[in-house]
Structure formats: C-alpha cells, structure tokens
Fold:
Amino acid sequence: MRVLRDYQYAQARDRGASVAIGNFDGVHRGHQHVLGLAKRLDAPLGVVTFEPHPREVFAPDAPPFRLMNAAARANRLEKMGVDLLVELPFDSRLSSLTAEEFVQRVLVDALGISHAVVGADFRFGKGRDGDTDLLQRLGKQLGFDVTIATLLEGDAGAVSSTAIREALSDGRPAGAAAMLGHWHRIEGPVLHGEKRGRELGYPTANMNLDGLHVPKPGVYAVTVEVRDGPHAGTYGGVANLGIRPMFELSHPNLETYLFDFTGDLYGTHLSVGLVAYLRDEAKFDTLDALITQMDADQAAARAALRA
Structure:
C-alpha cells in the first residue's frame, strides 16, 4: 500500500483511483461497507482521510476519543486491500479550502480520482458547507463518479464509532467487535515500565494509551500480534488496562502478559486485541494476594480464548 501524507506529494501513478473518503476511525463494518462500494476492477482502491482527526483540531481540550491511531488505521486498511492511502494533514491550509476548492485541488487536480464513495452524512469544505448533493454535482462537472453509502445497521442499531466507544466503555468488547468486524485493537511500541510484573513472575509488555479512547479499566483476555522483530507472530494473553490501583500509575496504560512466551519485546510494535472482559481493577492487601489473583486471571483468559 502506498501512503501519501499530503495531496501535494501525489504523482502520476497515484491518479485514477476509486476512493472512499472519511475519517475511518476504527475501520468498522460501516467503513468496510464504504470500501466495498469503492472497489472496482478497473481502478486502484484508495482512501482519502485526515490526520489529525478534525475533531482533535476543533475541540483540542475534549477527552481522547479515537479508537485507533494513524498507524493502526493504516495497518487495518492495508489488510482490507487498499492500494493508496492519502492522509491529508488537517491544518489551517486544508480547513480553509471551500468545498469546491477541496474537490478541484485535492480530488481532481492532485489525485485525478475516477470515483468517490462517501457516507450519507458526509460534510466537507470550509465550515462544513459541502454535502453529498454538492459532491455529486461537482463529480458530474469534473468527470468522476460519486456513490453515496447508506448508514449500516447492525443487530443493536446503527454501526458507528460512537456506539463502539460506548460498548468499550461498558466493558463489552464482543459487542464492539460485532460492529467493528474485528477485535478492538490497541497498537504501538512496547515501552520500558517499572518491571514489577517480572518481579511477580508475570513479565508484561507495556503500552501507553495516549490520544485514544480508554475502554473500561480492568483485566481482559487478549490476542496479541507481535508485528516485527524476531518474535513476530500471534499469541494469546491476559492484560490489565488502567492505572493498577495497587501501584497507582499516573496515567492509564495497557500491560500485557503473553502466554508461553520468552524473549525481549522492548521497542517492537504490538497489536493487542481485546477479546473478553474478565474483571474490574482491584487493590490487594498483599503481593501474595495479587499473585494468586493473577494466576486466576491467566486461567480465566486461557478459557475465554478457547471458547
């Protein structure tokens, strides 16, 4: 997959794609529906998205809300068969473009798209003045097709990033996965921690949650993809997501113990999928009580992953 981080970097080989346009936070089943409509036999499959998410620019003080960072989104889109990913830098220059200027400069002059697919609620351009009707009119004038994707409904209602965040906040990773079409995954490098887990017989891979929506704190059964390095592969595991009440971390993080694993993971990139919520975080009176609970958590996680 070719990645462009500004439309001004587009080359002749990037022209002619059939593109899906949107934020694609989570790459959930609704997004996958949009991607499916963009697939054509006679054109590369492209995605035009924004980085940072416009909401981070317009509401910088709002609590973190993203389901995945840019790298995780790119990994998921590549797995979906995307050939060209255009991450438009959402800054004052881009946000000042009118809807007509956005279409002309970005979609036509730079990318030369053949087809665009957007959701029914898609808005674009300065002040969000552009809508799907305008996009269709401009497509006819400027020589590209436009398809409007209807909102996808799941068993529990509309599939949306908001509904997925609610499921994760409630400790329902299976409910989130039903809307995502895959386990909710937290991706990033393994960081050095205080190595308490190693001292307790449970060495963990530590990852921060900066900029991400934080699911319900607690202990989870997880599936782990080690994405690079000598230990690359897929493992089962158990993870604590939160502040570790016994040790009172200043910021929530994710600490994952990989089953049947020995080795050094520092600096490697992990993708940790939340499979089942096992219990709330708790504070224990003694380290022995904590270790006894960790033994039980490991057994419960192994059972959940076998189910």
